[in-house]
Amino acid sequence: MTIYNFAAGPAVLPKEVLEKAQEELLDYAGSGMSVMELTHRGKEFSAIIEHAEQTLRELMSIPEHYKVLFLQGGASTQFSMVPLNLALGKKAYYVESGSFGKKAFDEAVKLSKSLELEPISLGSTEEQQFDELVKFDSSAIDRDAAYVHVTLNNTIEGTTIYELPDTNDVPLVGDMSSDILAVGYDVSRFGLIYAGAQKNIGPSGLTVVIVREDLLPQKPVLSSMMDYRILANNDSLYNTPPTFAIYMAGLVFDWVKAQGGVQAMEQRNREKAALLYDLLDQSDFYRSPVKFKSERSICNVTFTTPSKELDTEFIKQAEAAGFKNIKGHRSVGGMRASLYNAFPREGVVELVEFMKGFEKRYGI
To answer: Which tens digits make up the pLDDT trace of 75-90?
Structure first.
Protein backbone atom coordinates (compact mmCIF):
# COMPACT_ATOMS: atom_id res chain seq x y z
CA MET A 1 0.00 0.00 0.00
CA THR A 2 1.29 3.42 -0.97
CA ILE A 3 1.42 5.92 1.88
CA TYR A 4 0.55 9.57 1.20
CA ASN A 5 1.50 12.05 3.91
CA PHE A 6 -0.91 15.00 4.07
CA ALA A 7 0.67 16.45 7.24
CA ALA A 8 0.74 20.23 7.61
CA GLY A 9 4.22 20.11 9.08
CA PRO A 10 6.65 18.49 9.51
CA ALA A 11 5.60 17.58 6.03
CA VAL A 12 6.53 15.41 3.08
CA LEU A 13 10.02 15.90 1.60
CA PRO A 14 11.12 15.11 -1.97
CA LYS A 15 12.20 11.49 -2.28
CA GLU A 16 15.29 12.54 -4.23
CA VAL A 17 16.35 14.81 -1.37
CA LEU A 18 15.94 12.05 1.22
CA GLU A 19 17.93 9.64 -0.95
CA LYS A 20 20.73 12.20 -1.38
CA ALA A 21 20.85 12.79 2.37
CA GLN A 22 20.92 9.04 2.96
CA GLU A 23 23.79 8.67 0.51
CA GLU A 24 25.84 11.35 2.28
CA LEU A 25 24.80 10.57 5.84
CA LEU A 26 27.95 8.72 6.90
CA ASP A 27 30.48 10.51 4.73
CA TYR A 28 29.80 14.01 3.46
CA ALA A 29 31.81 14.98 0.36
CA GLY A 30 34.68 12.68 1.24
CA SER A 31 35.18 14.34 4.63
CA GLY A 32 34.90 11.06 6.49
CA MET A 33 32.26 12.68 8.70
CA SER A 34 28.50 12.82 8.67
CA VAL A 35 27.04 16.19 7.76
CA MET A 36 25.61 16.18 11.28
CA GLU A 37 29.15 16.02 12.66
CA LEU A 38 30.61 18.92 10.66
CA THR A 39 31.72 21.95 12.66
CA HIS A 40 29.76 25.04 11.69
CA ARG A 41 33.07 26.93 11.51
CA GLY A 42 34.66 24.53 9.02
CA LYS A 43 35.06 24.88 5.26
CA GLU A 44 32.62 22.06 4.48
CA PHE A 45 29.71 23.65 6.32
CA SER A 46 30.64 27.13 5.11
CA ALA A 47 30.17 25.84 1.57
CA ILE A 48 26.82 24.29 2.53
CA ILE A 49 25.29 27.43 4.04
CA GLU A 50 26.66 29.74 1.34
CA HIS A 51 25.24 27.50 -1.40
CA ALA A 52 21.88 27.32 0.37
CA GLU A 53 21.68 31.11 0.60
CA GLN A 54 22.69 31.73 -3.00
CA THR A 55 20.21 29.16 -4.33
CA LEU A 56 17.38 30.63 -2.25
CA ARG A 57 18.28 34.12 -3.49
CA GLU A 58 18.08 32.86 -7.05
CA LEU A 59 14.78 31.04 -6.55
CA MET A 60 13.05 34.00 -4.90
CA SER A 61 14.88 36.78 -6.78
CA ILE A 62 15.96 38.27 -3.46
CA PRO A 63 17.52 41.73 -3.99
CA GLU A 64 21.09 42.29 -2.84
CA HIS A 65 20.06 44.78 -0.15
CA TYR A 66 18.20 42.05 1.76
CA LYS A 67 19.88 39.82 4.33
CA VAL A 68 19.07 36.11 4.47
CA LEU A 69 19.25 34.53 7.92
CA PHE A 70 19.07 30.85 8.88
CA LEU A 71 17.82 30.80 12.47
CA GLN A 72 16.40 28.55 15.16
CA GLY A 73 13.25 28.79 17.25
CA GLY A 74 10.56 28.23 14.65
CA ALA A 75 8.38 30.88 13.06
CA SER A 76 6.65 31.46 16.40
CA THR A 77 9.84 32.98 17.80
CA GLN A 78 9.53 35.62 15.09
CA PHE A 79 6.29 36.78 16.73
CA SER A 80 8.60 38.32 19.34
CA MET A 81 11.69 39.02 17.26
CA VAL A 82 9.89 41.14 14.67
CA PRO A 83 8.50 43.75 17.12
CA LEU A 84 11.68 43.70 19.22
CA ASN A 85 13.79 44.55 16.19
CA LEU A 86 11.46 46.77 14.18
CA ALA A 87 8.77 48.31 16.37
CA LEU A 88 10.25 49.72 19.57
CA GLY A 89 8.90 53.25 20.02
CA LYS A 90 6.50 52.82 17.09
CA LYS A 91 3.10 51.54 16.04
CA ALA A 92 2.85 48.11 14.44
CA TYR A 93 -0.23 46.88 12.57
CA TYR A 94 -1.50 43.30 12.46
CA VAL A 95 -3.98 41.54 10.19
CA GLU A 96 -5.75 38.68 11.99
CA SER A 97 -7.07 36.40 9.26
CA GLY A 98 -6.11 33.15 10.98
CA SER A 99 -4.92 31.54 14.18
CA PHE A 100 -1.25 32.34 13.60
CA GLY A 101 -1.95 35.96 12.70
CA LYS A 102 -3.83 36.24 15.98
CA LYS A 103 -0.92 34.63 17.85
CA ALA A 104 1.52 37.11 16.31
CA PHE A 105 -0.67 40.02 17.40
CA ASP A 106 -1.16 38.58 20.89
CA GLU A 107 2.60 38.21 21.33
CA ALA A 108 3.15 41.84 20.33
CA VAL A 109 0.48 42.92 22.82
CA LYS A 110 2.23 40.92 25.52
CA LEU A 111 5.53 42.66 24.76
CA SER A 112 3.82 46.06 24.81
CA LYS A 113 3.03 45.56 28.50
CA SER A 114 6.71 45.99 29.36
CA LEU A 115 8.26 47.62 26.27
CA GLU A 116 7.51 50.78 24.32
CA LEU A 117 5.56 49.67 21.26
CA GLU A 118 1.95 49.97 20.12
CA PRO A 119 0.45 46.94 18.37
CA ILE A 120 -2.79 47.72 16.50
CA SER A 121 -5.16 45.22 14.89
CA LEU A 122 -6.44 46.10 11.43
CA GLY A 123 -9.24 43.61 11.85
CA SER A 124 -10.05 40.02 12.68
CA THR A 125 -12.30 37.35 11.18
CA GLU A 126 -12.12 35.17 14.28
CA GLU A 127 -15.84 35.50 15.03
CA GLN A 128 -16.62 33.69 11.77
CA GLN A 129 -13.94 31.02 12.38
CA PHE A 130 -11.46 32.80 10.07
CA ASP A 131 -13.42 31.73 7.00
CA GLU A 132 -12.22 34.76 5.02
CA LEU A 133 -9.37 37.25 4.87
CA VAL A 134 -9.51 40.62 6.63
CA LYS A 135 -10.18 43.60 4.37
CA PHE A 136 -8.81 46.92 5.57
CA ASP A 137 -8.49 50.51 4.42
CA SER A 138 -4.83 51.43 3.90
CA SER A 139 -5.58 55.06 4.73
CA ALA A 140 -6.08 53.96 8.34
CA ILE A 141 -2.37 53.09 8.54
CA ASP A 142 -0.02 55.66 10.05
CA ARG A 143 2.83 56.19 7.57
CA ASP A 144 5.29 56.41 10.47
CA ALA A 145 4.40 52.92 11.69
CA ALA A 146 7.04 50.20 11.83
CA TYR A 147 5.23 47.63 9.69
CA VAL A 148 2.04 45.85 8.71
CA HIS A 149 2.14 42.14 9.59
CA VAL A 150 0.25 39.56 7.51
CA THR A 151 0.18 35.78 7.44
CA LEU A 152 0.32 34.87 3.75
CA ASN A 153 -1.15 31.38 4.09
CA ASN A 154 -3.36 30.33 6.97
CA THR A 155 -2.35 26.71 7.44
CA ILE A 156 -5.17 25.82 9.82
CA GLU A 157 -8.08 27.52 8.08
CA GLY A 158 -7.01 27.09 4.44
CA THR A 159 -6.93 30.69 3.15
CA THR A 160 -4.18 32.55 1.28
CA ILE A 161 -3.31 36.13 0.36
CA TYR A 162 -2.34 36.09 -3.33
CA GLU A 163 -2.56 39.82 -4.02
CA LEU A 164 -0.40 41.75 -1.56
CA PRO A 165 -2.24 44.56 0.24
CA ASP A 166 -1.62 48.29 0.00
CA THR A 167 0.07 49.32 3.25
CA ASN A 168 0.31 53.09 2.70
CA ASP A 169 4.08 52.82 2.14
CA VAL A 170 4.62 51.13 5.51
CA PRO A 171 6.93 48.06 5.33
CA LEU A 172 5.08 44.77 4.89
CA VAL A 173 6.09 41.88 7.16
CA GLY A 174 4.99 38.46 5.95
CA ASP A 175 4.77 35.13 7.72
CA MET A 176 5.35 32.91 4.69
CA SER A 177 5.77 29.63 6.56
CA SER A 178 3.19 27.63 4.62
CA ASP A 179 3.69 28.81 1.06
CA ILE A 180 7.30 29.93 0.69
CA LEU A 181 8.61 28.51 -2.61
CA ALA A 182 5.07 27.26 -3.37
CA VAL A 183 3.54 30.61 -4.39
CA GLY A 184 5.54 33.28 -6.18
CA TYR A 185 5.73 36.61 -4.33
CA ASP A 186 7.72 39.74 -5.14
CA VAL A 187 10.24 39.93 -2.29
CA SER A 188 10.86 43.61 -2.96
CA ARG A 189 7.28 44.30 -1.80
CA PHE A 190 8.25 43.17 1.71
CA GLY A 191 10.34 44.71 4.44
CA LEU A 192 10.74 41.31 6.09
CA ILE A 193 9.71 37.72 5.39
CA TYR A 194 9.98 34.80 7.78
CA ALA A 195 9.15 31.13 7.36
CA GLY A 196 9.42 27.96 9.38
CA ALA A 197 11.13 25.28 7.32
CA GLN A 198 8.98 22.26 8.08
CA LYS A 199 6.44 22.68 5.28
CA ASN A 200 8.17 23.54 1.99
CA ILE A 201 11.85 23.93 2.91
CA GLY A 202 13.00 20.97 4.98
CA PRO A 203 12.90 19.40 8.44
CA SER A 204 11.75 21.29 11.51
CA GLY A 205 14.24 23.30 13.56
CA LEU A 206 15.10 25.94 10.97
CA THR A 207 13.53 29.34 10.32
CA VAL A 208 14.43 31.49 7.33
CA VAL A 209 14.31 35.29 7.72
CA ILE A 210 14.70 37.66 4.76
CA VAL A 211 15.05 41.26 5.92
CA ARG A 212 15.75 44.54 4.17
CA GLU A 213 19.05 45.95 5.41
CA ASP A 214 17.67 49.37 6.33
CA LEU A 215 15.26 47.71 8.77
CA LEU A 216 18.02 46.13 10.85
CA PRO A 217 17.91 47.63 14.36
CA GLN A 218 20.14 50.61 15.05
CA LYS A 219 20.19 49.98 18.80
CA PRO A 220 20.94 46.73 20.63
CA VAL A 221 17.92 44.47 21.07
CA LEU A 222 16.96 42.99 24.44
CA SER A 223 18.79 39.72 23.64
CA SER A 224 21.77 39.21 21.32
CA MET A 225 20.25 35.94 20.14
CA MET A 226 17.18 37.87 18.98
CA ASP A 227 19.04 40.78 17.39
CA TYR A 228 18.79 40.67 13.59
CA ARG A 229 21.82 42.93 13.16
CA ILE A 230 24.07 40.72 15.28
CA LEU A 231 22.81 37.59 13.52
CA ALA A 232 23.28 39.18 10.10
CA ASN A 233 26.76 40.49 10.92
CA ASN A 234 27.72 36.95 11.90
CA ASP A 235 26.25 35.36 8.76
CA SER A 236 23.80 33.28 10.85
CA LEU A 237 26.76 31.83 12.78
CA TYR A 238 26.57 33.87 15.99
CA ASN A 239 25.95 30.55 17.72
CA THR A 240 25.76 26.98 16.43
CA PRO A 241 22.97 27.00 13.82
CA PRO A 242 20.74 24.00 12.96
CA THR A 243 23.38 22.60 10.63
CA PHE A 244 21.59 19.48 9.42
CA ALA A 245 18.36 21.39 8.74
CA ILE A 246 20.30 23.97 6.71
CA TYR A 247 21.99 21.18 4.75
CA MET A 248 18.59 19.63 4.01
CA ALA A 249 17.16 23.02 3.04
CA GLY A 250 19.96 23.46 0.53
CA LEU A 251 19.11 20.10 -1.04
CA VAL A 252 15.44 21.11 -1.26
CA PHE A 253 16.40 24.44 -2.87
CA ASP A 254 18.40 22.50 -5.48
CA TRP A 255 15.40 20.24 -6.06
CA VAL A 256 13.01 23.17 -6.53
CA LYS A 257 15.46 24.71 -9.00
CA ALA A 258 15.63 21.44 -10.93
CA GLN A 259 11.81 21.33 -11.07
CA GLY A 260 11.76 24.68 -12.87
CA GLY A 261 11.72 27.10 -9.94
CA VAL A 262 8.99 28.72 -7.89
CA GLN A 263 6.69 29.64 -10.78
CA ALA A 264 6.70 26.05 -12.01
CA MET A 265 6.00 24.78 -8.49
CA GLU A 266 3.07 27.18 -8.10
CA GLN A 267 1.54 26.01 -11.38
CA ARG A 268 1.80 22.37 -10.29
CA ASN A 269 0.39 23.19 -6.88
CA ARG A 270 -2.57 24.98 -8.46
CA GLU A 271 -3.23 21.96 -10.66
CA LYS A 272 -3.06 19.58 -7.68
CA ALA A 273 -5.36 21.71 -5.55
CA ALA A 274 -7.83 22.15 -8.44
CA LEU A 275 -8.39 18.38 -8.55
CA LEU A 276 -9.60 18.47 -4.96
CA TYR A 277 -11.49 21.76 -5.13
CA ASP A 278 -13.32 20.61 -8.26
CA LEU A 279 -14.65 17.64 -6.31
CA LEU A 280 -15.69 19.83 -3.38
CA ASP A 281 -17.52 22.23 -5.70
CA GLN A 282 -19.39 19.45 -7.47
CA SER A 283 -20.36 17.61 -4.30
CA ASP A 284 -23.39 18.10 -2.03
CA PHE A 285 -21.68 15.88 0.55
CA TYR A 286 -18.36 17.68 1.11
CA ARG A 287 -18.01 21.34 2.02
CA SER A 288 -15.13 23.82 1.94
CA PRO A 289 -15.28 26.16 4.96
CA VAL A 290 -13.51 28.95 3.03
CA LYS A 291 -16.02 31.64 2.10
CA PHE A 292 -14.48 32.90 -1.15
CA LYS A 293 -12.94 30.71 -3.85
CA SER A 294 -10.36 33.40 -4.65
CA GLU A 295 -8.96 33.06 -1.13
CA ARG A 296 -8.61 29.28 -1.10
CA SER A 297 -5.17 27.95 -0.26
CA ILE A 298 -3.41 25.75 -2.79
CA CYS A 299 -1.18 24.42 0.00
CA ASN A 300 -3.75 23.48 2.67
CA VAL A 301 -7.15 22.31 1.44
CA THR A 302 -9.69 22.10 4.26
CA PHE A 303 -13.05 20.33 4.00
CA THR A 304 -15.79 18.63 6.02
CA THR A 305 -18.56 16.05 5.59
CA PRO A 306 -22.17 16.64 6.73
CA SER A 307 -21.41 15.73 10.37
CA LYS A 308 -18.60 15.41 12.91
CA GLU A 309 -19.40 11.70 13.18
CA LEU A 310 -18.85 11.24 9.45
CA ASP A 311 -15.67 13.33 9.68
CA THR A 312 -14.38 10.88 12.28
CA GLU A 313 -15.31 7.90 10.12
CA PHE A 314 -13.73 9.51 7.05
CA ILE A 315 -10.44 10.06 8.89
CA LYS A 316 -10.46 6.48 10.21
CA GLN A 317 -11.02 4.95 6.80
CA ALA A 318 -8.63 7.34 5.06
CA GLU A 319 -5.82 6.46 7.49
CA ALA A 320 -6.46 2.75 6.90
CA ALA A 321 -6.27 3.36 3.14
CA GLY A 322 -2.85 5.02 3.41
CA PHE A 323 -3.90 8.68 3.51
CA LYS A 324 -1.98 9.73 6.60
CA ASN A 325 -2.33 12.88 8.72
CA ILE A 326 -5.45 14.11 6.95
CA LYS A 327 -7.22 15.05 10.17
CA GLY A 328 -7.90 18.78 10.44
CA HIS A 329 -6.35 20.95 13.13
CA ARG A 330 -7.85 20.33 16.57
CA SER A 331 -9.15 23.92 16.73
CA VAL A 332 -11.37 23.57 13.64
CA GLY A 333 -11.91 19.84 13.10
CA GLY A 334 -12.79 18.35 9.74
CA MET A 335 -10.08 17.35 7.31
CA ARG A 336 -7.04 19.07 5.84
CA ALA A 337 -5.01 17.92 2.86
CA SER A 338 -1.66 19.71 2.78
CA LEU A 339 -0.37 19.70 -0.79
CA TYR A 340 3.08 21.23 -0.45
CA ASN A 341 5.69 21.24 -3.22
CA ALA A 342 6.90 17.70 -2.57
CA PHE A 343 3.44 16.16 -2.38
CA PRO A 344 2.84 14.04 -5.53
CA ARG A 345 -0.05 14.66 -7.89
CA GLU A 346 -0.97 10.98 -7.88
CA GLY A 347 -1.69 11.25 -4.15
CA VAL A 348 -4.38 13.86 -4.85
CA VAL A 349 -5.84 11.74 -7.64
CA GLU A 350 -6.12 8.74 -5.33
CA LEU A 351 -7.59 10.84 -2.51
CA VAL A 352 -10.28 12.16 -4.86
CA GLU A 353 -11.21 8.60 -5.84
CA PHE A 354 -11.36 7.61 -2.17
CA MET A 355 -13.58 10.60 -1.42
CA LYS A 356 -15.95 9.70 -4.24
CA GLY A 357 -16.26 6.18 -2.86
CA PHE A 358 -16.85 7.44 0.68
CA GLU A 359 -19.57 9.81 -0.53
CA LYS A 360 -21.25 6.96 -2.42
CA ARG A 361 -21.31 4.84 0.74
CA TYR A 362 -22.46 7.51 3.18
CA GLY A 363 -24.16 10.19 1.09
CA ILE A 364 -27.90 10.68 1.09
So the answer is: 999 999 999 999 999 9
